[in-house]
């Protein structure tokens, strides 16, 4: 009898092992969006915003409503996500230009041999493909790309010039002829800081073409599980998308973001206050808001097309979906434009995660998280080892139970001006504390004051809160890295 029971037990164990071995690995759809802030309807629902497909995504994933970038600039944020190494360890806090390849490996000793997320999945049996903007590059800087061609099995187009050829420009009228004053930020000749409709169909715009390519990848038969990374460039400047998206946001209906004339009396003056002055002096604020909202609507449409492609594919039921953006964005809030600050509007990012048969889809998590948490999260979801370089913490417990309380904090770091040491911002579920390199402090109660109008750091009423968050500041942050003059990845002049 014992021999029979033992034999039955062995058969059962072998059968379980075979069943486990036969379970297919989940595919991953990894969506990165450039310069998209929290205006979208599942988050702040800015008046006039139209994002039905982000609402659709929110219904089928967990919304992380308190997610923040590691650094409020494209290059450092994207390197942090793709390697799982925070800026305080790498020393990459700002954008570094004129690269042709993964110069971040030479910019930071910490990243010399770092494994990217696509490389890690590829090394563990995945077919890793990418398209669009994933590492830093710009529409108007051909060949200036920090992408690493060696970490992908396949890339759409040229990985070292992935988007510049994809975007048409509208016919430009000089500022002088338009009655605008000189001094447009980024220069008036090319109007890269501008908002104007494109007189072309969607099919001739970059993100539409990237989504077309991604849809083809989803429809193909793959011998390996798929890691598909899709980088969408809009709503990055210039705010130029087809006319139909501007028509969705008539200028007379545009509402400006909340602002106060005395907002900066108790805060650090932003470096781009002169951008705001040019915009307001020339009566362009509503026009730029219109352009940004039009770009958000365009991006929402491309997201819908991507979700349609996933739903029509054989991969639908077994695909992890993660959508993130590289940082927040200002449209004149606190007299700032774009990013490069540490306020909540600059660092808070949309983050959505769906895990098949696991995620509490349709729910919202209010626990703070930093985008460096994505690498270990995806590893755990795909049952892959987590590389030692990863500094984040997996979000799987919050994906299962978004309401579960934790002691998490978010951390965003940035070097201002010529500072060689970083400033930091920390968020919990209620407060945001900013400690600048020169010792200046800001503290905001985001529940009572979501626009960060009143700095609470100066009095004694919130001393306990300030001290508690201040204790969490990183010790020994890496110094600010510079462009390595001898890197083989420096962009050579033609």
Describe the structure.
This protein has 494 residues and is α/β, with parallel strands linked by helices. It contains 15 helices and 17 strands. The strands form 4 sheets. It has an 8-stranded mixed sheet, with helices on both faces. Strands 14-15-16-17 form a 4-stranded antiparallel sheet, with helices on one face. A hairpin with an 8-residue loop joins strand 14 and strand 15 (423-427). It is globular. Residues 1-21 have low confidence and may be disordered.
Layout of helices and strands:
Elements: H1 2-22, E1 27-33, H2 52-59, E2 62-64, E3 67-68, H3 74-83, H4 87-90, H5 104-107, H6 117-123, E4 127-132, E5 154-155, H7 175-178, H8 206-219, E6 226-232, H9 243-247, H10 273-281, H11 285-311, E7 319-325, E8 330-331, E9 337-338, H12 344-347, E10 348-349, E11 351-354, E12 364-365, E13 369-370, H13 374-381, H14 396-400, E14 410-414, E15 423-427, E16 431-435, E17 441-445, H15 463-470
Parallel strand pairs: 1-6, 1-7, 2-12, 3-13, 4-5, 4-6
Antiparallel strand pairs: 2-11, 3-10, 7-11, 8-9, 14-15, 15-16, 16-17
